[in-house]
Predict the 3D structure of the following.
Amino acid sequence: NKAANAFYRFPLVEVRGVPLSNWIAQNWSSIWTFCPDPSDFLISTYPKAGTTWTQEIVDLLLHNGDAEICRRAPNIIRFPFLEITSPPPIPSGLDLIKTMKPPRFIKTHLPIQLVPEGFWENKCKVIYVARNAKDNLVSYYHFDRMNLTQPEPGSLEEYLQKFMKGRLSWGSWYDHVKGYWKEREKKNILYLFYEDIKENPRREIVRIMRYLDLSLSDDIIDKIVELTSFKVMKDNPMANYSFIPNAVFDRSISDFMRKGEVGDWTNYFTPAQSQMFDEDYARQMADVDIPFRTSI
Ligand code: A3P
């Protein structure tokens, strides 16, 4: 019932060729003209690549591993989501940012060409997290089934087609990961992989720490590894999205903290789908050599 519930599957509207929810598209001019403070940070991902995980790591690094402080508020409040615009009374990402003092850790799913230019002009630090296409697709598929503001995903076969054509919210996975990859050196972007964090969280947490110009003791780093494990985060109400009502995230369909594994795609792709996907992938990724891993 759309009238009774303002949250329903919002249609996608293209902004400079990138499909975004109609709410974001309507608000686009204020998003595009947003200017961050030079001390602000950006955490950017294609949806479902490990945003929430990276946010928790960053927050704990900034607060010297203090779990209590990092439970001060739900992650959507701790990390304003730049472009998110929802029906009232939910505050927009921009409104939330205005209430916070820099440095702010801003989340975005925008492809690099849609990131407001102030981030580059002000030389803000940017952390990008990428996840292999097949696991990213499976995770996004489950998310689109349960997040009732996202377009209807249809069958997995239909979803595969939409993913390959870039017809999902925030557009093409291929363009997204390539866009940031090509600019990572020039723009000093820390480019991380979900699979690397899963394989060796300590090593990647140390990389993030150094990028943020922080220096924490080994004990604290070990503690952060533990606090940001899938098991601990799944039970952390300030990180696991349990504060989003069931009318928006339908948990009878799927949980936000779903599985947190590398290689779950093998449980979903048929051999024929995998082959078709790989052939298309080789064509779409021919111009780059990004070391994605579909297993670890
Ligand atoms: P799955 O659906 O494969 O389980 P995002 O935060 O970008 O929306 O990404 C969500 C994905 O990251 C989900 O993947 C979620 O389970 C996974 N994730 C979240 N926290 C994690 C953690 N601590 N360790 C591993 N995966 C995590």
